[in-house]
Design goal:
The chain is α/β, with parallel strands linked by helices. It is 38% helix and 20% strand. The chain has 18 helices and 24 strands. Strands 14-17-18-13-12-20-21 form a seven-stranded mixed sheet, with helices on both faces. It has a six-stranded mixed sheet with strand order 9-8-7-10-11-23, sandwiched between helices. Strands 5-6-24 form a three-stranded antiparallel sheet. β7, α8 and β8 form a beta-alpha-beta unit. The longest helix is centred in the N-terminal third of the chain and has 21 residues. It is globular, with a radius of gyration of 24 Å.
Length: 512
């Protein structure tokens, strides 16, 4: 194991040639080769008390079995990051960014294998995999720019002989906890900018996607020439390590993407240990169709917004709010289009809706639909459940107090809710504890902007889908949908801190 002193594999390697990593040979067999912990530049078995078994959610095939990391491995990963970080931060940022340029080439060279892994482990369709890899590239491109964006300032001083310098420096070590729905993308989304800005990282992927969210990310940066110890991946679970990942004294920032329930716990524990957090949590987004909208286009946007990746998207349009003036036309066309969606094997390019991540999630979504209908909702379309495959459902006529209206639905269920005029649309859209994304469809763009500004949400789109993520635009939510922002300049705020150094060029006078 490396002693972390950055000897021959230190900063020079970070911008040198590929060395022995140039073949990228293990991506096609990633489930055989990457099912391990990655600590201090080494792949190793965990020493925990049980194994995480990684299954294909479509056919139940066993993909990998990984002995979980224990508390000792958490400490080793953070200590390796702590040792490696100063040397990595000392690398000239122009040279540091070459790692991300090479990472882009690694993705290009292995796109077919990465797509297959996303399909096998996540149940991702061809559309979903392409979307995920496209955005992963975009965040790597933005990381190249971020490496040069930690700018300092010189501020005025109250006397002529003093100088105030404000330095922007890495926080040190960042802990990243990523989710199962877009694991490769959402790991890279925090990992790449944190690294670009001179930090080291310990990444914990979701236990349902340890390869796409962890092993593949480690392999990507290893092949791109990142020095050992700068990125570490631990595959584990709170049942094994408790809160050790958050409580550990080394990380200064925790970046978490997942449910609001777990996010609340992460924030509470982190705050008790004086750590900063950025929390990207759930949503209950509304797509609003006003009376002057292009109905056909709004239908297309709404179907995509609700059913992309089986609805397992935090930005998905849980609720489709439709003005009564166009409700009948919209509903008929929406249901007709949803009926055409093919449910089945995500490996089939013609499939629109693949499996949910596991049988428990499929059962929960099925029970939620059953209960909502029992409580008085009308099912315009009722999807059939077969194992982890859940067909799309479209519900309307929901009672005003229906619990489903206020919660995140992580599955292929659409709610159509009529309204009378803009005021009611705004009220209904805001009647949720979440505030992540949204959309407004209208023939008058400025009318759409006026309505959008009244929705209490971090992001909202006029005449488009609710599902957007762009590497340079601040991403995040209000209310229970999160704290802080990612992307673009927000990454500099999250993953660096300011340091004030004053210089007295003359002599200060002291009162005693």
């Amino acid at each position: 194991m490396s002693d972390g002193t950055h000897g021959s594999h230190g900063p020079q390697h970070a911008y040198g040639t590929h060395g022995t990593h140039g073949s990228y040979g293990s991506y096609g067999s990633c489930f055989d080769t990457l099912g391990a912990q990655y600590i201090d530049g080494e792949w190793r078995a965990g020493t925990g008390s049980w194994d995480i078994v990684d299954f294909n959610p479509y056919d139940g095939e066993k993909l990998a079995s990984i002995t979980v990391a224990g508390v000792d491995e958490i400490d080793q990963a953070y200590r390796a990051a702590e040792r490696a970080q100063p040397g990595w931060a000392a690398v000239n940022p122009y040279r540091r960014r070459l790692v991300f340029e090479r990472a882009l080439r690694v993705i290009d060279d292995n796109e077919a294998e990465l797509t297959a892994a996303i399909t096998a482990e996540c149940g991702g369709t061809a559309v979903k995999a392409a979307f995920e890899l496209h955005l992963a590239r975009e965040f790597l491109r933005e990381a190249i720019q971020l490496a040069l964006r930690a700018e300092g300032r010189i501020l005025p001083a109250p006397d002529d002989t003093r100088e105030n310098r404000l330095y922007r420096v890495p926080v040190g070590v960042v802990g990243v906890i990523s989710p199962f729905n877009f694991p490769f993308l959402l790991s890279i989304k925090s990992v790449a900018p944190a690294l670009a800005l001179g930090n080291a990282v310990v990444l914990k992927p979701h236990q349902n996607t340890p390869i796409c969210g962890g092993g593949l990310v480690a392999k990507l940066f290893e092949d791109a020439g990142l020095p050992g110890g700068v990125l570490n991946v631990v595959v584990t679970d709170i049942a094994e390590i408790g809160d050790a990942l958050i409580e550990h004294p080394v990380p200064k920032v925790i970046s978490f993407t997942g449910s609001d329930k777990v996010g609340r716990h992460v924030a509470t524990v982190a705050a008790a240990h004086f750590k900063r957090t950025v929390l990207e949590l759930g949503g209950n987004s509304a797509l609003i169709v006003l009376d002057d909208a292009d109905v056909d286009y709004a239908v297309d946007a709404a179907v995509f917004s609700r059913f992309i990746h089986q609805g397992q998207v935090c930005m998905a349009a849980n609720r489709v709010l439709v003005d009564r003036a166009v409700e009948r036309e919209f509903t008929e066309k929406f249901v007709a289009k949803v009926r055409t969606l093919k449910v089945g094997d995500p490996g089939d390019p013609a499939t629109h809706i693949g499996p949910l991540i596991n049988s428990g999630q499929a059962e929960a979504i099925t029970s939620l639909v059953d209960q909502t209908v029992a409580d008085g909702a009308t099912a315009l379309l009722r999807g059939r459940t077969d194992g982890t495959l859940v067909g799309p459902s479209v519900l309307t006529g929901l009672p005003a107090d229906s619990p489903i209206l206020a919660q995140e639905i992580f599955g292929p269920v659409a709610l159509i809710i009529p309204f009378d005029g803009e005021e009611e649309a705004v009220r209904l859209a805001n009647a949720t504890p979440y505030g992540l994304s949204g959309a407004v469809h209208t023939g008058d763009v400025e009318r759409g902007v006026r309505v959008a500004r009244r929705i209490d949400t971090g992001m909202i789109h006029v005449n488009d889908s609710t599902v957007h993520d762009e590497a340079i635009v601040p991403f995040g939510g209000e209310k229970h949908s999160g704290v802080g922002r990612l992307n673009g300049d927000s990454m500099v705020e999250v993953f660096t801190t300011t340091k004030w150094i004053s210089i007295q060029h003359g002599r200060s006078e002291f009162p005693f």
